[in-house]
Amino acid sequence: MQLKITSFFLLICFYASAQNDDMVRKSRPEPSFWDKVYLGGNLGLQFGTVTFIEVSPLLGYHITEKISAGVGVTYQYYQIKDRTTDFQTNVYGGKVFGRYMFNDYLFGHVEYEFLNLEAFDFYPQRRRVDVESLLAGGGYMQRVGMNSGIFAMILYNFTETNYTPYPNPIIRMGINIGL
What is the pLDDT of residues 70-93, one digit of tens each? Predict the structure, then answer.
């Protein structure tokens, strides 16, 4: 008998909690356009014999609570300077991406990236080439507030070529800041 009373009490508590969650969702105002926009990106720095600087800002939009999409630009400066080599180059381009949040922390990511960089087919001659990449993978987001977070992700380039500037897998870390 005591088990039945306890079960009945727990059932009422769960039902009341669910009703309360529904009321909170219904009373919450619809987010504005700017509430769904976020800024973010990556910043990479390495100094020494090999110098590497990357700045890759992005602009995203939450289409739904779980789906977001956006665009970004990429600039990379690369220099090797030692006793025998003095080389420097610039890489630049853009990307479009989509993300799906499986839960509050884990997400899937797909991205199309277009980069322009120097190719060294016949050293020392240089020529610029366009490199297209289709990247996909997943990551982890540590929330910092309602619309901001720090993320780490692992991507795989499904269209890797001789000119692709980074090998598989690609590891990225960055930040998103909600407006």
Answer: 999 999 998 888 888 777 889 999
Positive or negative torsion for Cα 37, 115, 155, 47: negative
Please tell me the pTM assigned to this model. 0.74
Between CA 172 and CA 150 the distance in angstroms is 11
Instruction: Give me 109's structure tokens.
Output: 């990511």
pLDDT-derived band of residue 25, with 50, 70 and 90 as boundaries? low
Query: Please, what is the end-to-end C-alpha distance for the chain in angstroms?
Result: 55
- The amino acid at residue 168 is N
Q: What's the longest Cα–Cα distance across the chain?
A: 88
Q: State the Cα–Cα distance between residues 101 and 165, nearest whole angstrom.
A: 28
Contact 57, 79 (CB under 8 A): no
Cβ atoms of 172 and 152 closer than 8 Å: yes
In the chain the beta strands, taken as DSSP E runs, fall at 37-46, 50-62, 67-81, 86-101, 106-119, 127-143, 149-157, 170-178
